Amino acid sequence: MKKKKSNPLSRREFLMICSKALPFTGIFFIPFTADQILFAQKTKEYDPTQHEYAMGINIHKCIGCGRCADACKKENNVPREPYYFRTWVERYIISTDGETYVDSPNGGIDGFPEFKDNLEILRTFFVPKLCNQCANPPCVQVCPVGATFLSRDGVVLVDEKYCVGCRYCIQACPYGARFLHPTKKIADKCTFCYHRLVRGLLPVCVEVCPTQARVFGEVGLQSSPLRRFLRFNDVVVLKPSLNTRPKVYYAGADGEVR
Q1: Cβ neighbours of residue 122 under 8 Å, at least 6 residues apart?
Q2: Where do the CATH 3.30.70.20 domains begin and end in the chain?
């Protein structure tokens, strides 16, 4: 007499059995939401070796609205105190006597007050700042535990599981783009919204910019908006003499921007 083949349990049936059995063993079953499952599926499909990201910023287009800094805090759960920023906006004020004044109250989120100093102002402009995602990052070199690393798609990331909060990377960053998270006690910084990149989305600061002052794309992709930005603008990087090889390119920046 032939034995009947038993039908394998479906995924739904298996999860239902586990959800009923696990509470009796003292283990809690936490179901995944549809968004979490979709995210996991897409990250498996994502191949970092096929991408190399960079950002362009057109200073002529930036109006200092601060929406990028505000959206960044909300998207990445950055503390709201005016000391912690993954991205921020600076105002440059150039006087007729050649002096340069720079301010960034609350990262530009609340706007900029009227400049009331008794100076003859030649011009003013706004400069968004963030981690420059260096190809030769000094923060990676000084990290004693390897928590800060350069991903295969060109983004400098911090592994929270390994970071010991020693602050070496914060001191080594020549752009002031890192901070110590007040509650996690680990180094924090801009990641180009990496959790969005692996899902095919833009960094949130790029998405909310009302004037398209920020341009994001891939360095090696001919159809990328970034390649067009680099082709039609004279761009510079910040502090090129340090040989950090930044991947944030500025159009419209002159010697006053540092």
Answers
A1: 94, 95, 96
A2: 48-135+189-251, 138-188
